[in-house]
From TrEMBL:
Protein name: Probable multidrug resistance protein NorM
InterPro entries assigned to the protein according to its UniProt record, in alphabetical order: MATE_fam, MATE_MdtK, MdtK-like
Family to which the UniProt record says this protein belongs: Belongs to the multi antimicrobial extrusion (MATE) (TC 2.A.66.1) family.
Domain of life: Bacteria
PANTHER family: FMN_FAD EXPORTER YEEO-RELATED, MULTIDRUG RESISTANCE PROTEIN NORM-RELATED
Pfam family, one: MatE
CDD domains xref list: MATE_like_8
Entry's transmembrane regions: 54-74, 80-102, 114-135, 155-177, 184-207, 219-239, 309-331, 343-364, 384-403, 415-436
UniProt organism field: Johnsonella ignava ATCC 51276
Function: Multidrug efflux pump.
Cell location: Cell membrane
MF GO annotations: antiporter activity; xenobiotic transmembrane transporter activity
Length: 477
């Protein structure tokens, strides 16, 4: 460990930023430079994530017009994509955190090599998931539901949408590398284009408008494939037109040595494992909901489609923290990184309270956008109320575990806290509540989501140890 880092952590109690207090909040409000940097990253990232979530919501609304069975089938079929997307998110996060520190250290060559490693890993994973979804879709669907109708509808969706996975892998790796180098507008532009294509294709192919055949659920799958392919192509074209630092030859990307590959593994493996194990746990939640019946699946699918939108704000803050803290630590500005981390913690609490208010106001109104029974609608509204209470905890745990801790490579601690919450609390409670006690789905939903309280407490304890506060570019070279 470098002496400045050791001295900084040994004297941690001397700093006013050791505690989250009103004086720290006051400093944050006055720090115009920080606020501009934070908003410059968090707003575009939030907007991009929000747009993607809105597309998912519109998909659900359009598919919902086909009935509860269609909602359940597509919701469960997308669990395969969900697990894949989490794996790619883990690889992308590892790519992003290393790229952010190298950007702070002004080492563009290493960023390009990290990009190559990320692409190689993510695209390889996409081929595996695509093959599984295409060749054994029935086996995958039966993991989640016993309903023959839901399985058959899900198969028709999976065998088409699986071809979009490689495009998603290439897009996401580039997006996280772009964010790390401060280029946050390109992903927003390409996302907007993809959204327009997706909505238009959905309208044409699901319902048979503009002379196209009415393909129902299959139409939604084709629309997703077309949109993700277009987005991938747009990202690659724009970064070349704008002469991004990421533009390089294949040799520059893939001629990485053992040292930088080891750096990627050391920092990315816990993140990848974290997302996979977390995703598997969330998938098992779906198995529990699936065993409770299509109405339960539909209620949770509708509720989470909206509540996931509030998560975009937290993910935007987390992304901003990885870039800003990573840049500062890569430049060896550790004291400034520590100060900024305390600012992010305060922002996570404020945004959590705001998200709670949104959930309280939107629940019943949102439920009437879907063609669902009164029983399902009632369950959706109660799920909203349960989630409103937990929003501040979701905000703090997300920004800390996905952002602050990972920004300095403290990925093992983030991994242990996150997966223990899912596997020691969420998964057991899902099956106990849904299959043993057989309580209503909204009670099971609340029991499962309570893991966020656990993750918030343990995450804050780890944050206060400041083991995440380090310059990775000097420690691993």
């Amino acid at each position: 460990m470098k002496d400045p880092e050791k001295k900084l952590r040994n004297n941690i109690k001397m700093s006013k930023y050791n505690k989250i207090s009103f004086s720290v909040f006051s400093d944050m409000i006055k720090d115009i430079s920080f606020l501009k940097r934070m908003l410059g990253i968090a707003v575009p990232v939030t907007l991009q994530n929000l747009l993607n979530m809105i597309v998912n919501m519109l998909d659900t609304i359009m598919i919902g017009s086909l009935g509860t069975g269609a909602i359940a089938a597509v919701g469960l079929g997308n669990k395969v994509y969900f697990v894949f997307a989490l794996l790619v998110f883990g690889i992308s996060s590892g790519t992003g955190l290393l790229s952010a520190q190298y950007w702070g250290n002004k080492d563009v060559k290493s960023i390009r090599k990290v990009l190559g490693i990320g692409l190689l890993t993510a695209v390889s994973a996409s081929f595996i998931f695509s093959a599984a979804a295409f060749f054994i879709p029935e086996i995958l669907m039966k993991i989640f539901t016993e309903s023959p109708e839901t399985v058959n509808i899900g198969i028709s969706y999976l065998t088409i949408v699986c071809f979009s996975y490689p495009f998603t892998a290439v897009t996401n790796i580039h997006v996280y590398a772009l964010r790390a180098t401060g280029q946050v507008t390109i992903p927003v532009i390409t996302s907007i284009s993809a959204i327009i294509i997706n909505i238009t294709a959905n309208y044409m192919l699901i319902f048979g408008n503009f002379g196209m055949p009415a393909l129902g659920v299959q139409g939604a799958a084709y629309a997703t494939l077309i949109a993700r392919a277009a987005e991938c192509i747009a990202v690659l074209l724009i970064i070349r037109l704008k002469k991004s630092p990421l533009v390089c030859s294949l040799k520059e990307m893939f001629s990485f040595g053992n040292n930088i590959f080891r750096q990627f593994l050391v920092n990315s493996t816990p993140v990848i494992a974290n997302e996979l194990m977390w995703g598997l746990g969330i998938t098992i939640y779906s198995i529990a909901y699936g065993r409770m019946g299509d109405n339960a699946v539909a209620a949770v699918t509708v509720a989470t489609t909206f509540t996931d939108i509030t998560l975009t704000v937290f993910m935007g803050l987390a992304a901003a923290s990885v870039v800003i803290l990573g840049n500062e630590m890569g430049a060896d500005h550790l004291e400034k990184a520590k100060k900024y981390a305390s600012y992010f913690y305060i922002l996570s609490v404020l945004m959590g309270v705001f998200a709670s208010i949104i959930c309280l106001l939107a629940g019943e109104r949102y439920s009437f956008m879907f063609n669902i029974s009164d029983k399902v609608r009632h369950d959706v509204v109660i799920c909203f109320l349960m989630h409103a209470f937990l929003q501040p905890f979701v905000g703090m745990s997300t920004v800390n575990l996905v952002g602050i801790l990972r920004s300095g490579g403290d990925t093992k601690a983030s991994f242990l806290i996150d997966i223990s919450g899912v596997w020691l609390i969420g998964v057991p409670l899902a099956f106990i509540g849904g299959l043993v006690l057989k309580v209503p789905v909204y009670i099971v939903y609340a029991m499962v989501t309570s893991e966020e309280i656990y993750k918030t407490i343990l995450g804050y304890i780890r944050y206060r140890k400041y083991k995440w506060l380090k310059n990775l570019t000097t420690e691993l070279n």
